[in-house]
Design brief:
The protein has one domain: Rossmann fold. It has 4 helices and 4 strands, in the order E-H-E-H-E-H-E-H. A 4-stranded parallel β-sheet has the order 2-1-3-4, with helices on both faces.
Length: 101
């Protein structure tokens, strides 16, 4: 599963990526806007938006790209590592459930 994380704390970028890897996901992390976000984002299965630390412009861009690729979007006010782990567990269990059906 591929994940794109928008927002969060700059100091925790590496921790976000490592946590996603531990849960079997490939992750791209964008804590701040630089250049054209549309070109950088690409396709992913899940977009995670940490809404407390992200600009409105970045949210709109991410939602547009998620809609194009028919991806799931999860919004979370807290940008903590435990919040990320909970989101990943939720979507990994849903993906496993879909495979069993």
């Amino acid at each position: 599963m591929s994940v794109i994380i928008i927002g969060g704390n700059e100091r925790m970028e590496r921790l976000y990526a490592d946590t996603c890897r531990e849960h079997g996901c490939k992750a791209k992390v964008y804590t701040k806007s630089g250049g054209e976000m549309k070109k950088k984002l690409g396709n992913a299965d899940l977009y995670i938006l940490f809404t407390s630390t992200v600009s409105h412009k970045m949210v709109q861009c991410a939602l547009g790209e998620a809609k194009k690729s028919n991806a799931c979007v999860e919004r979370c006010h807290s940008s903590s590592l435990s919040s990320l782990k909970n989101i990943l567990k939720k979507y990994r269990s849903e993906a496993a459930r879909e495979q069993n059906v």
